């Protein structure tokens, strides 16, 4: 008897814990908050996954073979264009310059003498003592020395260029990475990169967009500048949004054959997070190679049918809402959503302007149930 009593008590408690909307016959209809479907000003947006890419990237390499004497930067800091980063041994190249300067001076003196000899031979040609062969020999000698002087001058220029290569300077401004080769080694053009520099501000953000989405975007803003009429916002890895907006500056001319997407590139500001200290690393929100969220927004709001996001429910068949008919009965209505926001659901199809949709008390509803509708609170679903 005790076991039967316990089973009866459990069964009674399960019945008592049934759905809230299971009202006793003749009980009052459940109260719900409703809103009217009406045009709402919406800023259209789409979100994609993108990757940060430096605008400029340079691998520093040695242009001559020489002993690495000095490294003049701190790894991980930002350098300015033209900053001296490495110094190679200069003495052998200074010697080469001096040798070529001597060769140029020698051939210059020879050329002066050759010009004098040619001039004398040409003057004697008008006298019985002159010979045509002497003039020809003098002229050939003068031209040969002039050619040798040109070669010596070119070798002097090359020697000076090689001397300049012993100082490796930053060709662009940006953050410099770690040094790959330490001081004391002999480096050459085949030694590989000594270090790399990536520019910091602005940065590129590249992201793939479905070709259909991009075509619709271009048509929608064709009279406003196309893709240039949208703003690009970056969502960082911690979920926060970058304060500065970017703009699309490049669209790939080909569609990926495997994903049917087009690569789009935006140019986004990347200012320091705080006032930088001299000689210290500078922290910026965007880092080359990082994955980020990319939110593309239209610059002008558009009118669309909107309801509170809380009014939309989902099941295996898709999205649906409860619409209150004229007889105060709840009707389940399947809907398709457009580009929505966390607060507002844009209705692409399934509802008409003026329909009454339940946004509060949905948990008390079932299809065909009679309800007591009242205006929802102003903050419902917002």
Under CATH at level 1, the class of the largest domain stands as Mainly Beta
Helix content: 10-25%
Number of helices: 4
Whole-number count of domains = 4
Lateral arrangement of strands in the main beta sheet: 2-17-21-20-19-18
CATH superfamily of the largest domain: Efflux pump adaptor protein, beta barrel domain
Rounded radius of gyration (Å):
40 Å
Order of helices and strands: HEEEEEEEHHEEEEEHEEEEEEEEEEE
What characterizes the major β-sheet?
A: 6 strands, antiparallel
Helix/strand class: alpha+beta
The coarse silhouette is: elongated
Poorly predicted runs: 1-24
Beta-strand content bin:
25-35%
| Number of E strands | 23
Q: Can you put this structure into words, describing what you see?
A:
The protein is of the alpha+beta class and about 375 residues long. It is built from 4 helices and 23 strands. The chain has helices at about 1-15, 90-125, 130-165, 210-220; strands at about 30-35, 40, 45-55, 55-60, 65-70, 80, 85-90, 165-170, 175, 185, 195-200, 205-210, 230-235, 245-250, 260-270, 290-300, 300-310, 315, 320-325, 330-335, 345-350, 355-360, 370-375. Strand 20 and strand 21 (about 345-350) form a beta hairpin. Helix 2 (about 90-125) runs antiparallel to helix 3. The longest helix is centred in the N-terminal third of the chain and has 34 residues, at about 90-125.
Summarize the structure.
By secondary structure, the protein is α+β, with helices and mostly antiparallel strands. It is 24% helix and 33% strand.
Topology:
Blueprint lengths: L1 H15 L14 E6 L1 E5 L2 E10 L2 E4 L5 E6 L6 E2 L4 E5 L2 H34 L7 H33 L2 E3 L4 E3 L9 E2 L7 E4 L4 E8 H10 L9 E6 L11 E5 L9 E8 L22 E8 L3 E7 L4 E3 L2 E7 L5 E8 L6 E6 L6 E5 L11 E4 L7
Parallel strand pairs: 1-23
Antiparallel strand pairs: 1-22, 2-17, 3-12, 3-16, 4-11, 5-7, 5-10, 6-9, 7-8, 9-11, 12-15, 13-16, 14-15, 17-21, 18-19, 19-20, 20-21
Helix pairs in contact: 2-3
């Amino acid at each position: 008897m005790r076991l039967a009593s316990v089973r009866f008590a459990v069964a009674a408690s399960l019945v008592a814990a049934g759905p809230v909307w299971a009202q006793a016959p003749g009980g009052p209809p459940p109260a719900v908050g409703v809103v009217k479907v009406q045009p709402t000003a919406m800023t259209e947006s789409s979100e994609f996954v993108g990757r940060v890419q430096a605008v400029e990237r340079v691998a520093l390499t040695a242009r001559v073979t020489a002993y690495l004497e000095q490294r003049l930067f701190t790894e991980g800091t930002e350098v300015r264009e033209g900053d001296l980063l490495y110094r190679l041994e200069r003495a052998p190249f200074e010697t080469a310059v001096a040798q070529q300067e001597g060769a140029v001076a020698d051939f210059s003196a020879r050329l002066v003498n050759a010009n004098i000899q040619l001039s004398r031979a040409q003057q004697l040609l008008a006298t019985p003592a002159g010979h045509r062969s002497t003039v020809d020999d003098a002229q050939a000698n003068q031209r040969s020395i002039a050619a040798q002087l040109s070669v010596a001058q070119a070798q002097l220029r090359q020697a000076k260029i090689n001397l300049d290569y012993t100082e490796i300077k930053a060709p662009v401004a940006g953050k410099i990475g770690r040094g790959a080769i330490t001081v004391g080694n002999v480096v050459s053009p085949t030694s590989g990169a000594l270090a790399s520099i990536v520019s910091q501000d602005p940065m590129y953000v590249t992201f793939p967009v479905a070709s259909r989405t991009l075509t619709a975007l271009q048509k929608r803003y064709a009279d406003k500048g196309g893709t240039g009429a949208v703003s690009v916002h970056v969502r960082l890895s911690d979920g926060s949004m970058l304060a500065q907006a970017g703009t699309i500056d490049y669209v790939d001319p080909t569609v990926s054959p495997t994903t049917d997407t087009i690569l789009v590139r935006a140019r986004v500001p990347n200012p320091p997070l705080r006032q930088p200290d001299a000689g210290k690393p500078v922290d910026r929100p965007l880092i080359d190679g990082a994955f980020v969220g990319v939110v593309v927004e239209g610059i002008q709001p558009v009118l669309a049918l909107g309801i509170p996001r809380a009014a939309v429910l989902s099941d295996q068949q898709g999205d649906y809402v409860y619409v209150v008919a004229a007889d105060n009965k709840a009707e389940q209505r399947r809907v398709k959503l457009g580009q929505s926001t966390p607060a507002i659901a844009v209705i692409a199809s399934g509802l008409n302007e003026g329909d009454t949709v339940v946004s509060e008390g949905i948990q008390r509803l079932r299809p065909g149930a009679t309800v007591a509708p009242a205006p929802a609170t102003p903050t419902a679903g917002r």
